[in-house]
Design a protein that fits this description.
Strand 5, helix 6 and strand 6 form a beta-alpha-beta unit. Helices cover 41% and strands 15% of the residues. The chain has a seven-stranded mixed β-sheet, with helices on both faces. Strands 9-10-12 form a three-stranded antiparallel β-sheet. Strands 1-11 form a two-stranded parallel sheet. The chain contains 13 helices and twelve strands.
Length: 391
């Protein structure tokens, strides 16, 4: 017998749960793309996206996923043969590096492992060693979705300033925008990339590249018409926002999602994500006292507020995931990029999530631990409930 009938819960770290308001906004006939309401919607999105990123800079919208945003960011400021420095704390840092290599760039990688945040002293040393100034950009994920490591982006800028290096600072906020605080201008970030399918609660299909005047001034001499961010940020005609037909229904969904964020208030959104993350950590800390279950990131200061990676014995991660999905209707994230992958699972707690959803997720996981005979200490749900009650 399966108890999974009813509304399922997709607790993977993106695509995230979509609010009913977003689904309703998208459930409509195609609009006129040449004038009228759609143009007004797009005009309203731009200042709200910038407010979310806390920037007065520009934003270009691409009809594509996060990988498209990666390529757009690099294609505008780097030419084949240029060098970039990638600060990797998981699979997605290495993924951005692979994208750079595919564009013909020379890539230096500082690998900080899968459990620790970026070490600023190593960053400063690497940049000081670049006496010829070959490094054009420093790339870092604020949150690496595969590991749940959260990096101090402002600290990276401070390390760059200490080294006296003039490279661009580029941040990946795919798994953090709308979940963890990000202050592009105050932190000295020149380029930021994000997507719509995680903290912004919209179906995958839109990539965003935010860039400031410094980055705009370093645009390379030849950028393809498709990747060029200038017409998208400063179009003469409406179609130039998207280099063609607008992704109409995504735009309506995004408008509804941003309205939800504005209604709640960005500070409250950040606080909600922080509390729910701490509830998950509290449960895991208790469970881990009776078995091998463990949080991937030991230092709470370096843990993401949007995704948590959890390790167990080989085989136990997949066994738990399969029980939760097929017996209880809860889908957890795979051990993406981990070795062995079947020893890991991830919980996505981003965007449209609240206390009862997280408590239900955790209770299902505890039921799965029992059903799968995975050693653990009882009391995890109590610990999570106390964390939420105290908030």
């Amino acid at each position: 017998m399966s108890l999974s009938q009813g509304r399922t819960y997709l607790a993977i770290p993106g695509p995230s749960v979509m609010p009913d308001a977003v689904l309703r906004a998208m459930h409509r006939a195609s609009p006129n793309i040449y004038e009228g309401e759609l143009h007004d919607v797009v005009a309203s999105l731009l200042p709200d996206l910038k407010a979310l990123a806390q920037t007065t800079g520009d934003v270009a919208i691409y009809t594509g996923n996060g990988h498209a945003a990666w390529e757009a960011s690099l294609a505008n400021v780097c030419a084949p043969g240029d060098t970039v420095l990638v600060l990797a704390t998981g699979r997605f840092g290495h993924g951005w590096a692979e994208m750079a290599r595919g564009l013909g760039l020379s890539v230096d990688v500082l690998d900080f492992g899968e459990q620790d945040a970026v070490d600023m002293d190593r960053v400063t040393a690497a940049l000081k060693a670049d006496s010829a100034g070959l490094i054009k950009a420093v790339l870092v994920c604020q949150t690496d979705t595969s590991t749940g490591v959260r990096n101090d982006v402002a600290g990276v800028r401070a390390a760059m300033d200490e080294a006296g290096h003039d490279a661009l600072l580029m941040a990946d906020c795919m798994a953090s925008l709308g979940c963890d605080n990000f202050a592009m201008d105050d932190w000295g970030v020149d380029v930021m990339v994000a997507g719509c399918q995680k903290g912004l609660m919209t179906p995958a299909g839109l990539g965003f590249v935010f860039f400031n005047a410094k980055a705009a001034g370093r645009q390379v001499g030849r950028v393809s018409v498709w990747w060029n961010w200038q017409p998208r940020a400063h179009p003469n005609m409406f179609y130039e926002y998207f280099n063609g037909t607008a992704p109409t229904h995504h735009l309506y969904g995004l408008r509804a999602a941003l309205d939800l964020i504005k209604e709640e208030g960005l500070d409250n959104v950040m606080a909600r994500h922080a509390v729910l993350a701490r509830a998950i950590w509290a449960a895991c800390d208790v469970w881990g006292q009776g078995g091998a279950l463990r949080l991937n990131v030991k230092d709470p200061a370096n843990r993401s507020h949007s995704v948590t990676s959890i390790g167990m014995e080989p085989g136990q991660g997949d066994k738990l995931r399969q029980w939760c999905e097929h017996q209880a209707g809860l889908t957890l994230g795979i051990g993406l990029g981990r070795e062995p992958a079947d020893a890991w699972f991830r919980i996505g707690h981003m965007g449209h999530v609240n206390a009862q959803m997280i408590l239900g997720c955790l209770a299902t996981i505890e039921a799965g631990l029992i059903a799968c005979d995975i050693p653990h200490q009882a009391g995890g749900i109590r610990a999570a409930a106390e964390m939420i009650a105290a908030a």
